Amino acid sequence: MLNGKRILLIVGGGIAAFKALELIRLIRKAGGAVTPVLTQAGQEFVTPLSASALAAEKVYTDLFDLTDEAEMGHIELSRSADLVVVAPATADLIAKMANGHANDLASTLLMATDTPVLMAPAMNVRMWLHPANQRNVATLEADGIACVGPDEGDMACGEFGPGRLAEPEAILDAIIARLGEGPLTGKHVLVTSGPTHEPIDPVRYIANRSSGAQGSAIASALVRLGARVTFVTGPADAPHPQGANIVPVQTADEMLSAVNAALPADAAIFAAAVADWRVESATDSKIKKTKTGKPPALKLSENPDILATVARKRKDRPKLVIGFAAETDDVIANATAKRARKKCDWIVANDVSPETGIMGGTENAVTVIDKDGAESWPRASKTDVARRLASRIADALAK
Ligand code: C5P
After folding, report:
1. pLDDT of residue 263
2. Which of 91, 105, 222, 238 is deepest in the core (most CB within 10 A)?
């Protein structure tokens, strides 16, 4: 995937620095090479020896190490990589980068480089939200520095909120999206994901329990194989896939417009749980309770079937159109009938009965149905299901 591409990895000093070691391992496993640079504070959390052992490379720590200057100066070092990754990017490193400081090896490399930079911030939630940090991050983004994370969650300091380092897998996805090559390089793949929200009035809506986790995982897996991915998503809980072009929508109508705007594509995967119905005349003002206590009657009308619209014969029909069938009874029979009705090439069927724990869970058990029959895959993580599906898609598009 990374085909020998070199990452200059700058490790700042924060409790999340240990995850940089896992990132080194993942980058190498994906075929990349890593030159680690540890800041002085970074060395308090990660030793140069462990970074060097995992990278199987020399680790750089000191701007004024003359032996290193003889081997490779900081200017050359800063330009020797295909991508500079700062993980964790602490508040201090971010401030230095935003203001052009160059008073240690890491900040000097960041000033001297003409290579694209990706940063993965990690810090306490108050520090992340501090106006000074937010200003610095905005400055860096305006300078063209890409950012992955931070995630939201429990922090080592006992607080909760945004500030956690993105998971190493997500940082790797962001790296691959910038540098990677694979069997889907040059292909455009469209993915719909998440639920849709159909308004009743300005404050209420009809929705469903889709988390968007399987759709996000599929988009990530496709990015990893080199695809250019357009990810049209309803309001989902799952994190957006790194490296995809994200198009957020609310309603089925908006999703259809976004899908039409994204075509042509080589393949389209419809993982969204689109609401079948919308409220026919959603009101512009909030519906009030009446004195009589009579509840309002909601008249529903059918939403456009996005999958069926794209799958029917049309000039820009993708070569491969894949639908999902979330069923609770007669899964395979219903899904097979759905494939014929919607005229898609494959249907990915799954049993979403509550006892399976699949809807909103981390695992999935799917059956892929195509013109030749049904292939059931063992229950696995949504990430693994996504990878297997992405590789089946790559094979089909290669034919
Ligand atoms: O008919 P049903 O909702 O079960 O079909 C599921 C498949 O159709 C999924 O792939 C879903 O993304 C797609 N679909 C759609 N537009 C709709 C309803 C479903 O694209 N309005």
Report:
1. 96
2. 222
Other beta carbons within 10 Å of 130: 14
Portion of the chain with pLDDT greater than 70, in percent: 98
Choosing among 2.60.40.1120, 3.40.50.1950, 3.40.50.300, 3.40.718.10, the CATH entry for 6-178 is: 3.40.50.1950
Is residue 147 annotated as part of the catalytic site, yes or no? no
Tell me if domain 6-178 and domain 188-398 are identical in fold: yes
Nearest CA residue ID for atom 5, ligand 1: 325
CB 20 within 8 A of CB 48: no
CA of 247 to the centre of ligand 1 (A): 18
* Residue having the nearest C-alpha atom to atom 21 of ligand 1: 305
Which pLDDT does position 49 carry in this prediction? Answer: 96
The whole-number average pLDDT for the span 166-188 is 91
**Assigned token pair, 51:** 């970074």
With contact defined as beta carbons under 8 Å apart, do 92 and 68 qualify? no
Element (H, E) at 93: helix 91-99
Cα–Cα distances (Å) from 359 to 18, 373, 377, in that order, read 33, 25, 17
Q: Which of 75, 129, 138, 157 is catalytic?
A: 157
Which tens digits make up the pLDDT trace of 90-110?
999 999 999 999 999 999 999
Q: What fold characterizes domain 188-398?
A: Rossmann fold (3.40.50)
Mean pLDDT confidence for 321-325: 97
Dihedral sign (CA 378, 382, 383, 387): positive
Pocket of ligand 1 (CB under 6 A): 192, 252, 270, 272, 274, 303-307, 323-325, 338
| Residue located nearest, by CA, to atom 4 of ligand 1 | 325
**Domain residue ranges in the chain:** 6-178, 188-398
Distance 274 CA to ligand 1 centre (A): 6
The DSSP string of 28-67 is HHTT-EEEEEE-TTHHHHS-HHHHHHHHTS--B--TT-HH
Instruction: Please report, for residues 21, 57, 298, the alpha-carbon distance to residue 9 in angstroms, rounded to integers and kept in the order given.
Output: 10, 12, 56
- Highest-confidence segment of 66-80, 264-278, 341-355: 264-278
* Contact criterion met (CB below 8 Å) for 109 and 117: no
